[in-house]
């Protein structure tokens, strides 16, 4: 019978686990960043729109370059159009970040509403296989989408910043939880 040595710092993937102090530091830094973002959600909504704009421009540029590198794959024109659409969207977000934030928030509200309705429908269809969990998740998505859309355009000024702040804080709490549970960490 083979035995396994669990005393190494390597996880199941063979990649070294981060040291405890690094996990704690990362967790605290992310929580502080989340609190900082929540301190001015309107500012960070605009900052998010600008960041998404730059990201879209770079992605569009790479999409266009990729279209020329892979001409033989087919879909060359579609890749060029998609790249141009990314670049145009990025330029709009950079030139009009408040308007861009409003557009992004409206699209987010629509996506939450539609995906919530889909999850509710699928959850009801699979009720006996614990579909109620999916249905409950869908209800929360529908509610979130309706809150965003019913308060629009005012919600467009704070939703992205609020979600960013909450995400940073929850990510930080996750790292702290990971660091403070030594039973789950390799020795």
Automatic annotation (TrEMBL):
Keyword list, A-Z: Membrane, Transmembrane, Transmembrane helix
Alphabetized InterPro entries for the sequence: Acid_resist_chaperone_HdeD (IPR052712), DUF308_memb (IPR005325)
Record keyword Coiled coil present: no
GO cellular component terms given for this protein: plasma membrane
Residues that span the membrane, as ranges: 20-38, 44-69, 76-95, 101-120, 132-152, 158-180
The keyword Nucleus is annotated on this UniProt entry: no
Protein name from the UniProt record: Uncharacterized membrane protein HdeD (DUF308 family)
